[in-house]
Amino acid sequence: VDPGRRMGVAWPVRDDSEWPGYEPCEEASWWMHRARLLPEDRRRPGIRAQVVRTELRGPKSAMYTAYVLHVRTAFHVRGVSRRFSDFASLDDRLRARFPSAPALPRSHRLVGTLSPSFVQERRQQLQDYLDQVLADRLLAYSDTVTTFLALQGVQPLD
Known about the structure:
InterPro entries: PX_dom, PX_dom_sf. By secondary structure, this protein is an alpha+beta fold.
């Protein structure tokens, strides 16, 4: 490294606590950290999403449940919230484009959709669905999924 050359700063994610943090380092030293992020087969870790909590939103006459997701890639961590109808729309678009995509469990329940037990059960179903979708590299990096997870432009490193 030329000592007269100005160095850029990289912001790798430090993930050793409950909440991920960013830690500045010189761009040239980033490659030392990069080795810890890559598994043995030298591919970038995939996209991970976790349904971390639920929130009741809207006016009392039209309340709905929002599912808050933490979405992680090797270099990004962000939070997004989605309604069940957003998941249903994702499922419809994925299955139209990829017929073998996993199916989202649907509930035809009209009453009691805000009850804590129902919301918790649905949260687990949505987590299982996301895990199945993100386990398939083709689905995980499709425009449909990256748009849903607010990760436009994320590409796998191969």
